[in-house]
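2024-03-11 09:14:02 DEBUG pipeline.ingest accepted 1 chain
2024-03-11 09:14:02 DEBUG pipeline.ingest length=321
2024-03-11 09:14:03 DEBUG pipeline.predict start
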Amino acid sequence: MRFLIAGGSGLIGRRLCQAWVTEGHHVTVLTRNPDRAGRRLPVGVKLVVWDPGRTASAADPTLVDALRGMETVVNLAGASIGGWPWTPRRKRAILESRLAVTNAIVDAIGALPAGQRPNTLINASGIDVYGDRRDREIDEESPPGDTFLARVAVAWEAAARRAEELGVRVVLCRQALVVARDALAFRLLVLPFRLLVGGRLGSGEQPFTWIHLDDVVALYGRAARDSSISGALNLVAPEVLPERDVAAVIGRVLGRPAWFAAPAALLRLLLWGQADLLLHGRHAVPARAIAAGYRFRFTTLEPAVRDALGRPLPAVRPAHR
């Protein structure tokens, strides 16, 4: 297959490139900084220099040419939701960065003759689209929430779905927190335990959704290959635990205490709106992945955390007779 990836130098993009190049596919990555991307990405990935911030026309010629003849487009691009306080300016950047890239991709697809358009657009999204929902199980048919991140996800997905009018199959990957050694959010989640101050966040009752990086990569591959998958796709593991139990798992894996509590008021004072990432929750399930026959590599949290942290299960000693 021929893949074009926007946002390919991030964690998920790098792993997708590695997997698909290894499988013998042709992979092209759109990048603002080809030197940095070249250092991060595996040999065999083609780089196309493109900056959506400098696009002067509705259908940028560089992007149109890069899209011509591609089978699957993967859009992972967008400003990070972490790192900086959610000031009004930062919120605009989070939204506008996603819409700018997605609209540019769809406009460029529309500029191509029908026979040269990609078959599939796989667009990243977030499980936060459902907002703070703890009262019931949520699948891909559930309505969106009304939090800041939910509104961002709704707008982002709407921009991507414009490609359906052009005959392109659109898959919206609503991704939970990624469990992986190099995943920034996971590293930040684990850090207090390494400093011996780990424990529940807020009440600890909020449902915690997660997914191992191996399953993220596999599900993007399934979405590319399986034409029966379209629309929303929850990228979440089957096991959903209350956050206090997640803290207990991390503490157990690291051999660290997990009884320090971070009050919600303190988290909101320190993190402003970003505290929603820690205090909001939803019991989302991967209904469409399971219906498509996907078998998760990591169905429960503790093995996933052990894999990410390089902490295998303790060896079982044989019983002495």
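2024-03-11 09:14:41 DEBUG pipeline.report The two ends are 58 Å apart (CA to CA).
2024-03-11 09:14:41 DEBUG pipeline.predict end
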